[in-house]
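Researcher: Re-running this chain for the archive, since the previous output was lost when a drive failed. Same request as before.
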Amino acid sequence: MSTKRINGRNTVGTIFGIVMILIYIGMGVLCFINFFGFSGGWDWLRWVAGVAFVLYGIWRAYRQVKFVRYYDDDNGIE
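Model: Regenerated structure tokens:
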């Protein structure tokens, strides 16, 4: 088994995870500042969606850090 292949796959996964964290938190912030123009009776939806996006982004960030630490402790071996 090649160590480079495992490390390459982890690098791509790490980059993808960071990009997704930024997207989820960014979507939450955009909902908070009413970027999408919700009005009238739908105003509550932007607050609920904003909170949900930000919390999910934080959860993904926690999992990303936890996963990286797991691999650091095990030297990349499951």
